[in-house]
Structure formats: C-alpha cells, structure tokens
Design a protein that fits this description.
Layout (H helix, E strand, L loop, with lengths): L8 E6 L6 H7 L10 H16 L7 E3 L13 H12 L8 E3 L3 H4 L5 H11 L4 E5 L2 E5 L3 H4 L5 H21 L3 E5 L20 H14 L3 E4 L6 E5 L2 E5 L13 E7 L4 E7 H7 L3 H8 L3
Parallel strand pairs: 1-2, 2-3, 5-6, 6-7, 7-9
Antiparallel strand pairs: 1-10, 4-5, 8-9, 10-11
Helix pairs in contact: 2-3, 2-9
Length: about 290
C-alpha cells in the first residue's frame, strides 16, 4: 500500500538530543562531564509536545543520531537512554519514531558488540521503509567513518544498500531519501575531511552511488549547526540539534514536505514550532492533492 504515491506529505527530522553534552560542553569535560542532562530532558519534551500539536500530523519523526552523549561503556549511558525513552514514549502513538545511529550511540570506532547493543535498545542500525510512494533509507554512517573493528559489517551494509537501490529502481518510486548521522559534507562536496564529515574518497564513492540511483536528499545531524550543499542534484541537508548548540542556531526541528516534484524543508526553533506551528506556505503545499 505504501508503495503508491498518494499526494504530498511531510515528516519531522530531529538530531542530536544527546543527553549529557550540554553540561559536559559547559564545563569543558567532554568525556566525563555528562552526569547531568536536565536541560536536554526539557528540550526533548518541548520537541515532543510541539510535534504532538501539529495538524495535520507528520507521517513520522526521525531522530538522526546521537540520542545520548555517553559513549558505549560509560557511566551514565543507561540512565541517559532510559530518560530519553521516557520522553519519547509520550509522542503521539499515530506518529512512528525512526531512529538513526550516531557516533555516541555506537562509538567513534564501532564494534559488533556496540552495534548489537544499539540494536537491542533502538532497533536496526540500517533499514529501509516506504511512505506514500517514497523510499527511505536509514544508514549506519559510522561504518563509513571508521569500520576498522568491524570491516565485515561495513561490507554487509554495502551489499544491502546496493540491493535496496535495485529494489527502488524496480518499483519506480517517486523519490529516494536517505537518513544518516554524519553528513557526506557540510557545505561543499570537495571540502577537506574533518570530524564532522566523511573522508573524501569514501564520500565521493557514496555521492556517485547516490547520484546514479537518483537519490534526492540526504538528511543528517552531527554538526550541531545548520549547514548543507548539493552534489549533482543530490541535496545534503545538515540539521542542528534538539540538544546542545555549537553555533548560532537555536534548539530545533526540521519540517520536510515531500511533493510530487520536490522536497522542501525548513528548520524551526522549538519555540517557533510550539507557538506557531508550520507556516502557511508549507501547509498550502500539503493541501495540493495530485
């Protein structure tokens, strides 16, 4: 049923609630300073309340990684995860949650064990789904960042991805959209590699693959700032955080409208989305039935 295009719809993208980072960042102790996350709880609650008020309802709410700050094996991790789950379970039951794994969820250099633990807690680290004729892919970008401790898992994801893109081609889907934590790039496809993007040769290979497959957009987080650019018709959208801000942006969420021809999105501060909802221009796009 979801293979068929039924007209425009929208979804909500959030990223990096990262329970624990605000305190750790404030005191300058990124590794051990994450023993409080009251501020993040409030922000995540505000995000859920804002989403629950939206009318019409979004098709789903995707969280693009770094659900919590505590790395695998660290002291506060289990409590952070439990507190996030307690907030998220108040999301309207008609709005499915989609989880994407980030570096803090499975480690900068993931292992089979850290990935297994993530999957037990939040579901698969990569998967695909259909909504109204649009094909969505969730990827584990950490396997592209550093798979040195689990090269076989990277290979399995690569094979799976090729199979999925073949399926998408066969079904003649309206659009293909990708979610991953780490952006391919922040502003320019040929920018230098650093902590916040993927290594250049890896990036180039993925961008080419996505371009050939006709993927329209990749939505990421990780940067804790809004950014983005494009590569041969592929849009790279980098969304700032629900939690800790590392730039000039506000705590917020991205509203993404999918129409017959295009994908239109706008980042809203939590305050703005809570008080005013989605602007008329986007609502009008949703009202246009094909």
């Amino acid at each position: 049923d979801e293979y068929q295009w039924k007209g425009p719809f929208y979804f909500i993208q959030g990223a990096d609630p990262q329970f624990g980072l605000m305190k750790a960042w404030a005191i300058g102790d990124i590794n051990n300073g994450d023993d409080e996350w009251g501020e993040e709880i409030k922000l995540a609650e505000q995000a859920v309340q804002a989403i629950n008020k939206l009318n019409p309802k979004p098709k789903f709410f995707v969280l693009c990684g770094d659900l919590i700050h505590g790395m695998p094996g660290t002291q506060w991790r289990k409590d952070q995860e439990q507190d996030l789950k307690n907030v998220l379970k108040n999301t309207d039951q008609d709005i499915p949650l989609v989880f994407v794994s980030g570096n803090h969820d499975i480690g900068n250099t993931p292992t089979r064990e850290t990935i297994d633990n993530y999957c037990k807690n939040w579901g698969d680290d990569y998967f695909s789904f259909w909504v109204g004729g649009v094909f969505f892919l969730v990827l584990n970008s950490q396997l592209y960042f550093d798979s040195s401790k689990c090269p076989d898992l990277k290979q399995v994801q690569d094979v799976w991805l090729n199979e999925q893109l073949a399926v998408a081609e066969k079904h003649k889907c309206k659009h293909i959209i990708v979610f991953q934590h780490i952006p391919l790039f922040l502003r320019k496809p040929d920018e230098d590699h650093d902590y916040f993007n993927l290594e250049k040769s890896v990036r180039q290979e993925i961008m080419e693959k996505f371009h050939k497959a006709g993927i329209k957009a990749v939505f990421s987080g990780h940067y804790h700032r809004n950014a983005g650019g494009s590569y041969r018709g592929l849009e790279m959208v980098v969304s700032s955080a629900i939690g800790c801000q590392l730039g000039e942006d506000t705590h917020g969420l991205r509203v993404v409208v999918v129409t017959d021809e295009k994908i239109v999105h706008r980042y809203y501060s939590l305050n703005e989305l809570s008080s005013q909802g989605i602007e008329k221009e986007l609502l009008d796009m949703l009202a246009k039935q094909n």
